[in-house]
């Protein structure tokens, strides 16, 4: 599958400098730019499968073709899953029960619920139990569970992520998990590590797509350096969270 974003206009009505970008399965694409530059608007265009019918005038194609109406409007056939940093469950049911129900609704093996919980627990600090009520999960636990659910149970081949860096989960592992499952991952981020983890990044300015930058070999090297520092900070953060003395 490919996802194609065809350019529209920025806030002043000027044409996007990026006329078209095609994204393939397993690819991570970053969306970067200052606050108010139109990052979330671009995500919204993709989520809606815009066809020149949004304020930006952009169009979204699937495999080079206009999406079918059911792919745009039928929740059961939507190709897009979306994650944000503000996610909480409202259903008052147990984690295991919810996941088994979701698996059944997708025609999947209900026992995959165990795999989802196992994966989710690699992304969050406090482990999740199948017996936990959804409503008592923390924000980080909720997002970790949804990432794992999308990777294992959801059929949605496109995942849109809005600023996961403050979501309370292991962000690099989450992106690797989703892209490793063959998903197209588009992530809005201010985090240099996530931006450099992407294969390419779309630069937004004044509501428009101004350029696409492919991550260079030098940037990949810098990413590895940043990841090592982030690993040290994560360990330090966990030491403090556990009430231990930093030595």
Helix and strand run? EEEHEHEHHHEHEHEEH
Q: How far is the N terminus from the C terminus? A: 50 Å
- What ranges have pLDDT less than 50 throughout 5 or more consecutive residues? none
Q: Which structural class matches the secondary elements?
A: alpha/beta
Protein name: ABC transporter, ATP-binding protein
Domain ABC transporter: 3-232
Pfam families: ABC_tran
GO molecular function: ATP binding; ATP hydrolysis activity
Using brief descriptors, characterize the structure shown.
247 residues; alpha/beta; Rossmann fold; Helicase, Ruva Protein, domain 3; AAA+_ATPase; ABC_transporter-like_CS; nucleotide-binding; ABC transporter, ATP-binding protein
Structural notes for this entry:
There is one protein chain. This protein is an alpha/beta fold. It has three domains: 1-79 and 157-172 and 185-214, Rossmann fold (3-Layer(aba) Sandwich), CATH 3.40.50.300; 87-155, Helicase, Ruva Protein, domain 3 (Orthogonal Bundle), CATH 1.10.8; 216-247. Helix content is 36%, strand content 19%. The chain has helices spanning 39-48, 69-73, 95-105, 112-120, 139-152, 171-180, 192-197, 217-241; strands at residues 2-6, 20-24, 28-32, 59-62, 80-84, 158-162, 184-188, 200-205, 208-214. The strands form two sheets. It has a six-stranded mixed β-sheet, sandwiched between helices. The protein has a three-stranded antiparallel β-sheet with strand order 2-1-4, with no helix packed on it. α6 (171-180) links the parallel β6 (158-162) and β7 (184-188). α4 packs across α5. It starts with a strand and ends in a 6-residue tail after the last helix. The mean pLDDT is 91.
């Amino acid at each position: 599958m490919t996802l194609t974003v065809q350019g529209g206009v920025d806030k002043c009505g000027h044409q996007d400098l990026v006329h078209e970008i095609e994204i393939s399965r397993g690819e991570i694409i970053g969306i970067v730019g200052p606050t108010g530059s139109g990052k979330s608007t671009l995500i919204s265009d993709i989520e809606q499968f815009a066809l020149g019918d949004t304020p930006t005038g952009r169009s979204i194609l699937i495999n080079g073709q206009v999406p079918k109406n059911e792919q745009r409007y039928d929740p059961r056939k939507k190709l897009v899953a979306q994650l944000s940093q503000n996610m909480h469950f409202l259903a008052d049911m147990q984690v295991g029960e919810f996941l088994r129900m979701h698996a059944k609704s997708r025609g999947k093996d209900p026992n995959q619920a165990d795999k989802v919980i196992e994966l989710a627990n690699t992304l969050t600090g406090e482990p999740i139990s199948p017996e936990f009520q959804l409503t008592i999960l923390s924000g980080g636990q909720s997002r970790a569970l949804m990432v794992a659910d999308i990777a294992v149970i959801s059929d949605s081949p496109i995942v849109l992520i809005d600023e996961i860096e403050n979501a309370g989960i292991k962000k690099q592992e989450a992106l690797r998990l989703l892209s490793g499952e063959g998903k197209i991952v588009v992530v809005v981020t201010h985090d240099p590590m996530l931006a450099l983890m992407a294969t390419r990044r779309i630069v937004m300015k004044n509501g428009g797509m101004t350029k696409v930058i492919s991550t260079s070999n030098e940037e990949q090297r810098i990413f590895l350096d940043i990841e090592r520092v982030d690993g040290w900070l994560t360990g330090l953060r966990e030491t403090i969270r556990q009430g231990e003395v930093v030595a």
